[in-house]
Design brief:
transmembrane; coiled coil; T_SNARE_dom; 123 residues; mainly alpha; t-SNARE coiled-coil homology domain-containing protein
Length: 123
């Protein structure tokens, strides 16, 4: 019986060391899983930050596009207004020239009538 107990003790110690090795291995694996979990969380945070950054860049691009479009519309409107002002100036100048021509013609006709009256009244 003592022989069986003596043989049984080394077997228990061997089983304990195997269990301790397995426990240590499982603990190492658990720690590795925790580290991987933390890395995945950090990568998710970085991905979210990158996504938000891309969204912000898209909004900035949209704003730049809107500003460019608005600016080109404003320039186009300004050019149209400038052309309209030039046309009005030219039209105004043409009207003044016509008015001066009509006034000159009216004065000539008036002078001719007066001359005729004077000539006819002397006879």
């Amino acid at each position: 019986m003592q022989l069986q107990i003596a043989e049984h003790k080394p077997q228990q110690q061997q089983d304990l060391t195997k269990e301790e090795i397995e426990i240590a291995d499982l603990q190492a694996r658990l720690e590795s899983v925790r580290v991987l979990n933390e890395r995945v969380r950090q990568m998710n945070e970085m991905t979210m930050a990158l996504y938000l950054s891309v969204q912000e860049q898209n909004e900035l691009s949209d704003n730049i596009w809107l500003n460019t479009t608005t600016g080109s519309d404003y320039i186009s409107q300004s050019v149209d207004e400038f052309r309209l002002i030039n046309n009005l100036k030219q039209s105004k100048m043409a009207l003044w020239i016509k008015l001066l021509c009509f006034t000159f013609c009216f004065l000539l006709i008036l002078l001719l009538i007066l001359t005729l009256i004077i000539v006819l009244s002397q006879k």
